[in-house]
Design a protein that fits this description.
about 200 residues; mainly beta; hypothetical protein yedk fold; nine-stranded mixed beta sheet; 4 helices; 16 strands
Length: about 200
Amino acid sequence: MCNLYRMTKATAEVANLFNAKLGSVGNFATEVYPGYPGLVVAGGELRSMVWGFPLVLKGKNGQPLKPKPVNNARADKLDGLMWRYSFAERRCLIPVSAFAEAEGEKGAKTRTWFTLLDQEVFAVAGLWRDAPEWGPAYTMVMTEACQHVADVHDRMPVILKREDWADWLDGAPDDAGLLCRPYPELMVAERTGESWVRR
């Protein structure tokens, strides 16, 4: 599952690429982690939202704990209660320059970054909703890994080709569901010595 990605382009450039109005983008980091803001395209607008739908857990005494961001939605679980209405009514595009997966032995995992050979920014399928805890929040849709990712992780984000963006955003749920498949073209893996966990 994806718990880290990069978005390195300027917001105006991204809005132009996605033919979207530049909305309220606020501050966001180049590297995006769950629970922090990232950019999404929704309703024809590029805007920032928190990465992860809030899941409120309860402590031993029944008191609610700090919400946990659920930042990945499995494509085969989109009919579940947490995702169903967002999948039917609130799909979005997540602009991404690269996504990372952890690779290596436990306690010594490093970052392996995946990019597309011919695109500096690509679109990942997302869902969004207004959350009382955080305001607008989004999650990435995940599917089975393609051959370029499978030796690192068994799942990957749903990467959408440009010609499929409109169908993901506005098509019927059944048609959008057919787009949740492993990316069929070449991807580049960059293995690094960067520790997965930054101390």
